[in-house]
C-alpha cells in the first residue's frame, strides 16, 4: 500500500510540474524559477534527496533529472528538453560529469545561472578524462571495476563497491554509502573522452561548490575551472567528499538559492 501511495504521489508531482495542464495551472506564477539538478557518473537522482526539499522550501520548482550518462552531447539534449518544458527561468545544476552536461546545454534565454557541484566545467575541445588528470591527486582510476561490455558495443564503468565509500563518499555514513554503491549508475567510457562543445559558462553566470577532500576531481582542478569560468561565488567545504550535495545539502542548496536570486536580479 505504501508503495502504491508513493507512486501515486510521484505521478501527481510530475503531472503538476510538466503535465499538459501545467501551463494553465502555473500561469499566475510563470516567473517562478525551475532548478534542474543533473547528477554525475556513479550517482543517480536520489543523490539530491537532501537538496530537493530545501530548494522547494525556498519556493523553487525542482526537477532531479535522470542523466543517461551515455554521451556529453546526447545527455545535454535530454536536459535541453527539460529546459524547454520549464514554464519560467531555469537554473541548471550539475554534479561531477553532470557539469560537462550543463556546460553543453543548448543556448536558451531561459537559463539564468549555472551551478557546478564538485563538477567539471570543460572548455571547448576538453574532455572529462583530460580534466581529471590535469592536476595530480585523483585516485579514481584505481577504484574502477573491470569495464562492463554492452551488447550494442562500448563499455560501462562502475566504481568497485568495496572502494566506493572511501573514494566517492567518505563523509557519508558507511551504511548510506553502501546503498549508494549498490545503486550507482554507470557511465559510458566513451562519454569521458568526448570533446566538449562551446560551453554555456562563457555566456551564463556560474557558481561553484566543492569539498577539499574530493578524491575524484582534485580540489586544484575544481578551483582552476571555477576561476576560468569567472565564478560569481565559490564555496569550498573543508573535509567534504565528492558527493557534497549528499553530505552537505544545506550548503549546496543555499548556494543554488543564492545563484538563482542573483541571476534573477541581473
From TrEMBL:
| Record Pfam families | Abhydrolase_6
What superkingdom does the record give? Answer: Bacteria
| Domain AB hydrolase-1 per the UniProt entry, residue ranges | 35-254
A single MF term (Gene Ontology) = hydrolase activity
Keywords, sorted A to Z:
Hydrolase, Signal
Signal sequence annotation: 1-24
User: What is the name of the protein in this document?
Assistant: Alpha/beta hydrolase
Amino acid at each position: 500500500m505504501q508503495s502504491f501511495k508513493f507512486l501515486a504521489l510521484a505521478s501527481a508531482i510530475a503531472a503538476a510540474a510538466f503535465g499538459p495542464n501545467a501551463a494553465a495551472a502555473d500561469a499566475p506564477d510563470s516567473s517562478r524559477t525551475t532548478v534542474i539538478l543533473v547528477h554525475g557518473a556513479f550517482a543517480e537522482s536520489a543523490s539530491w534527496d537532501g537538496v530537493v526539499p530545501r530548494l522547494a522550501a525556498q519556493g523553487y520548482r525542482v526537477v532531479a533529472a535522470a542523466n543517461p550518462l551515455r554521451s556529453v552531447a546526447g545527455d545535454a539534449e535530454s536536459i535541453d528538453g527539460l529546459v524547454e518544458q520549464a514554464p519560467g527561468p531555469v537554473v541548471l545544476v550539475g554534479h561531477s560529469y553532470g557539469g560537462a552536461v550543463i556546460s553543453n546545454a543548448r543556448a536558451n534565454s531561459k537559463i539564468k545561472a549555472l551551478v557546478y557541484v564538485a563538477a567539471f566545467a570543460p572548455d571547448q575541445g576538453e574532455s572529462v578524462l583530460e580534466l581529471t588528470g590535469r592536476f595530480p591527486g585523483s585516485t579514481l582510476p584505481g577504484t574502477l571495476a573491470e569495464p562492463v561490455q554492452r551488447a550494442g558495443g562500448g563499455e560501462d564503468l562502475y566504481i568497485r563497491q568495496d572502494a566506493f565509500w572511501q573514494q566517492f563518499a567518505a563523509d557519508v555514513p558507511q551504511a548510506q554509502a553502501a546503498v549508494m554503491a549498490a545503486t550507482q549508475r554507470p557511465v559510458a567510457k566513451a562519454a569521458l573522452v568526448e570533446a566538449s562543445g562551446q560551453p554555456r559558462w562563457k555566456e551564463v553566470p556560474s557558481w561553484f561548490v566543492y569539498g577539499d577532500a574530493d578524491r575524484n576531481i582534485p580540489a586544484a582542478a575544481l578551483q582552476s575551472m571555477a576561476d576560468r569560468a569567472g565564478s560569481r561565488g565559490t564555496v569550498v567545504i573543508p573535509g567534504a567528499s565528492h558527493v557534497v550535495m549528499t553530505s552537505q545539502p544545506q550548503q549546496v542548496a543555499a548556494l543554488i538559492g543564492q545563484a538563482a536570486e542573483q541571476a534573477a536580479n541581473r
